[in-house]
Specification:
Elements: E1 10-14, H1 18-28, E2 33-37, H2 40-49, E3 55-59, H3 67-77, E4 82-87, H4 92-100, E5 106-109, H5 114-142, H6 152-169, E6 173-180, H7 183-190, H8 192-209, E7 215-220, E8 223-228, H9 233-248, E9 264-271, H10 278-294, E10 300-302
Parallel strand pairs: 1-2, 1-3, 3-4, 4-5, 9-10
Antiparallel strand pairs: 6-8, 6-9, 7-8
The structure holds 3'-deoxy-guanosine-5'-triphosphate and magnesium ion (2 copies).
3'-deoxy-guanosine-5'-triphosphate binds at residues 146, 179-184, 187, 192, 195-196, 199, 221-222, 293, 297.
Length: 307
């Protein structure tokens, strides 16, 4: 019996033989919240409802999708779940290979002893905890703590990767640099806490304005970078303008006074139009941003094509 306030970890058991499924569930129910599925297809639906599942324990041979195919999908849908499969002697070679490619973490030979299964599930649980912790650390290392968008370190890596990819495939990569206008006034007038709130609101707004393949990063204090892969310069100018307008129309809640309105300035540069390296792309977008500030702020300026 679980008497602590901690919720029990979830285990998803998948087997098309309902007798085996019931027996497995009975064996594990003291240590886990057991979710049962009678097919891989059924299991996938459960995973959508419980993406925090700790272990997926599946039979290999079922009518329809195999256990291995299921676990390959689990890798994407619930990357922290430990993946364990029941297998007969006959499939051992295939299973060993899947362990090497880490599509599965453990296999359990049929028939199994109850104690052995319990022990394997305790180990699978620690695999799950390790996966979860590793992913958390990895996401912390690329995330800006205040705004929750990507940090500068991630930006530097990503702009290099995307620049090389764009050059290799003959695609256009566009970089937009965006800087909040007169942000210092907000801090001066309402204090740093309100300033921070504004940064968070702007970052989240930017994140919702772009496609999932785009990257929003905090480049510096109140400056954000938007990496737009596969985006021709003229299209990116339109995207930037749309974002600039939407920010100008935003009302940001201010706990210290009336709602806040603000504007941003943007500089836009594309590779290969204006630059052939990531560093040149950054300096060209920066120069365009500087120009937008000089021309009066609240505007989008494109880089000039090299002569
Ligand atoms: P401009 O229109 O020329 O960009 O003017 P600005 O006031 O936005 O730019 P400036 O570079 O003069 O000032 C930026 C301010 O942003 C100063 C700095 O204290 C503030 N800032 C930087 N990081 C943070 C932060 O994390 N939180 C808060 N609240 N303020 C920050
Ligand atoms: Mg500014
Ligand atoms: Mg600035």
């Amino acid at each position: 019996m679980n008497t602590t306030s901690q919720p029990m970890p979830k285990i998803l058991c998948v087997d098309d033989d309902s007798t085996v499924l019931a027996a497995t569930a009975r064996l594990l129910r003291d240590d886990f919240e057991v979710i049962k599925a009678t097919s891989a297809e059924d299991a996938l639906k459960h995973i959508d409802l419980h993406p925090d599942v700790a272990i997926v324990l599946t039979d290999q041979k079922m009518g329809g999708m195999t256990g291995m195919d299921l676990l390959t999908k689990v890798q994407d849908k619930a990357p922290d779940a430990a993946r364990v499969i029941f297998t007969g002697q006959i499939e051992l070679g295939v299973m060993a290979e899947a362990v090497n490619t880490s599509r599965i973490h453990r296999f359990i030979l049929k028939p199994w002893e109850n104690d052995y299964l319990r022990l394997q599930m305790a180990e699978a649980l620690s695999i799950h905890r390790g996966l979860k912790e590793r992913r958390l650390l990895q996401s912390l290392s690329v995330t800006d703590a205040l705004t929750q968008v990507r940090n500068r370190r991630y930006f530097q890596d990503q702009i290099s990767v995307e620049s090389e990819r764009a050059l290799r495939h003959g695609r256009t990569l566009t970089l937009v640099m965006a800087d909040i206008d007169h942000f210092k006034n907000i801090n001066d007038e309402f204090g740093h806490f309100v300033g921070d709130t504004v940064l968070k609101a702007v970052a989240q707004h930017l994140q919702h304005q772009v496609r999932s393949i785009d990257t929003i990063a905090r480049y510096g204090g109140e400056e954000f970078a938007l990496i737009l892969p596969d985006t021709p310069f003229e299209n990116a100018m339109k995207v930037a303008e749309r974002i600039r307008e939407s920010i100008a129309n935003m009302e940001i809640k201010n706990p210290e006074g009336p709602d806040l309105h603000l504007t941003i300035s943007m500089g836009v540069a594309s590779l290969p139009d204006h630059a052939r390296t990531a560093n040149d792309l950054i300096s060209n977008a920066d120069a365009a941003l500087y120009q937008a500030k000089r021309q009066g702020r609240n505007q989008t300026v494109g880089a000039l094509a090299p002569k």
